[in-house]
Amino acid sequence: MSYLDTLFTLQGKTAVVIGGTGELCGAMAEGFAGAGASVILVGRNPDKAAARLAKIHHAHHGRAWFESCDVGSKKALSELLDRIVAKCGGVDIVVNGAGVNSPTPFLDVTEEEYDRIVNTNMKAVFLACQVFGRYFIESGRAGSIINIGSMAGLKPLSRVFTYSATKAAVHNLSANLAREWAAKNVRVNTLVPGFFPAEQNKKVLTPERVAQIMGHTPMKRFGDASELVGASLLLASDAGRFITGIEMVVDGGFNCMAI
């Protein structure tokens, strides 16, 4: 193996990608497979997973499959972990990337919408960190947890109030867990995408909003999902074994500009 292969390899590792049937986490899952990991795409819809799995199998000859799970249920997450450990022998990397969004004006946000977004974006991350974090600690196995944040969790930009609040909570939770678990060899980091044309934000990206984003982004374009792969490999592999508690921003320079 070359020096870089040795540094970033995930050979022999198992990566659980919650939200892996989506655009951004699906690209990350493909990157993990390309680096040698066995990859489990976790979601609700096997049809959405099929195309990504076919790509992984064809392009990388990778080992990957789909697992259905209600990630808002601790019991379901525990059963998911048991199935994966039984099949693979262990877990090394967890990505928490399930997410939903809505552009509802603040005064019109219903309790139903609030609960739906909080349960998916925050509660599911909280529970997955409990389930997989306990597994890492009790088994003595080194682990990397990558929680997917958002620019909306850093700056009040996107006019999606409940989504922004949940992502800010994910950022805070990740930093606290990183501090708590660092001595146990469990790393927790937040990967913060800038503006990518992912499924959940298509509904809020009006032409006016797109023009505002491009005007504020030094690179003058949206990100491509594949551009998250390098950052995610750094956080997942031994190349990043001394990195924990950070917010790794991948945004074309958006965050360095004044609001």
Would you mind describing this structure in some detail?
By secondary structure, the protein is α/β, with parallel strands linked by helices. The chain has one domain: NAD(P)-binding Rossmann-like Domain (Rossmann fold, 3-Layer(aba) Sandwich), CATH 3.40.50. Helix content is 45%, strand content 15%. The protein is built from 8 helices and 7 strands. It has helices at 3-8, 23-34, 46-60, 74-88, 111-139, 161-181, 207-216, 229-236; strands spanning 14-18, 38-43, 64-68, 93-96, 143-148, 186-193, 247-250. A 7-stranded parallel sheet has the order 3-2-1-4-5-6-7, with helices on both faces. Helix 2 packs parallel to helix 3 (46-60), helix 2 (23-34) packs across helix 8 (229-236) and helix 5 (111-139) runs parallel beside helix 6. The longest helix has 29 residues, at 111-139.
Give a brief description.
45% of the residues lie in helices and 15% in strands. With 259 residues, the chain is of the alpha/beta class.
Question: In terms of topology, how is this protein built?
Answer:
Layout: H1 3-8, E1 14-18, H2 23-34, E2 38-43, H3 46-60, E3 64-68, H4 74-88, E4 93-96, H5 111-139, E5 143-148, H6 161-181, E6 186-193, H7 207-216, H8 229-236, E7 247-250
Parallel strand pairs: 1-2, 1-4, 2-3, 4-5, 5-6, 6-7
